[in-house]
What does this fold into?
Amino acid sequence: MADIVATAGVSNDAFYRHFASKDALVGAILEDGMIRLASYLSHQMAKESTPEDKVRRWVEGVLSQATDDDIASTTLAVLWNAGSVGAGFGSGPLSASTPLAKLLREPFAQLGSSDPDLDASLAAHATVGKLSEHLWQRTRPRRHEIARIVDFCLAAVRRTG
It folds into this structure.
């Protein structure tokens, strides 16, 4: 924490007025990361006109977090620290899946899902789970795996519609 305070150029008092604890700082970093990722995904999805292509862009965008070494290292560090605030990645109050799932609701509804909120949540948990595996194993998703995840998400929605 001392390094963070020194790098930020603020006093300990000023830092702790804004962040009551290390957990509060990690929570803020997680929230900022989710906002940034959701914004990126929304932008990518907006480039597409069909719900199928929006879902494809969403899956590609989520899994792209494991394809760049710098992004993957940062995301992995956040994952590691997420456990210290009482919730693991992809579960609990700091779930990465929840805000990302909201982006899938509309395309899933357009595809005829009978429960687009639940379907979006399930697809998000599955995709974020695969992202987490890649980050921890320090591997990159392959094109055929990304295509299979897209197919899986679309097939699940079409079966429930």
Notes: The chain has eight helices and no strands. The first helix runs from residue 2 to 8. The two ends are 50 Å apart (CA to CA).
